[in-house]
UniProtKB/TrEMBL annotation:
Keywords tagged on the record: Cell membrane, Membrane, Transmembrane, Transmembrane helix, Transport
Keyword Amino-acid biosynthesis: no
Lineage of producing organism: Bacteria, Bacillati, Bacillota, Bacilli, Bacillales
InterPro entries from the UniProt entry: TM_pro_TauE-like, TSUP
Location(s) in or outside the cell: Cell membrane
Entry's transmembrane regions: 47-66, 73-92, 98-116, 168-188, 194-214, 226-244
Primary location recorded for the protein, binned into one broad class: membrane
Name listed for the protein in its UniProt record: Probable membrane transporter protein
Keyword Transport attributed: yes
Amino acid sequence: MELSVLILLGVIVIFVAGFTQGLTSFGFALIATPILGQIIPLQQTVPIIVILSLCTNGIVFAGCYKHADIRKIWLLILSSLLAAPLGTYLLLFLSADILKLATGVVIVLVAALQLAGKTFPIKRDRLAYLPVGAASGLLNGSISMSGPPVALFLSNQGVGKETFRANISVYGIFLNIMTILTYLYGGLLTPETLHYTAWFVPSMLVGVFVGIRALKKLNEQRFKRIALWLIAASGVWTIIGVLMG
């Protein structure tokens, strides 16, 4: 594939992923990674997505930082960071396909229940952030699926869209920074990777800001349904990937 065509396809994919992130505050990697990974080697795709995800999370957070509940979110971040290294050990006992299939099924079922109006709010939600963060960290360390557990929990608790966006964005920022440091240590941030990243930054910025603008037209209920459909789609996509892999 010619470089110009590759860049054009990548720009389109990153724009769509950026729009989704701007609209819902998550989903960038969900959309960009499987598609971009088909045209750029995966060892380059993943660092590109993580760097751009850090940028998108930062932009989203800058617009809603006043709504962040740091007293609760730090528990989520801490438990996630502590559990992430343990996620790699899960693969010693269970295959990645089994973990992905089980996670995908649970995500689809929980998202479907919430779409049907069935929620189970937890009164002592501050303590609940610990197991949710741990689950997210374990999944991130094993199969790189950290977002859905957090998004489902915030949706279940019925938090407003701005608090939802602020909390999940600051969580993503910490996770992205830790991952980038790991890549830097492992020598994955090559000049070619950074070159591709630079090409994709403009479309990422346009996509995010268009998504943020579109968000203003969504009320709380519509925002929640779009977020849940995106979460359900991530579960379905994961199941299909395992079955076809």
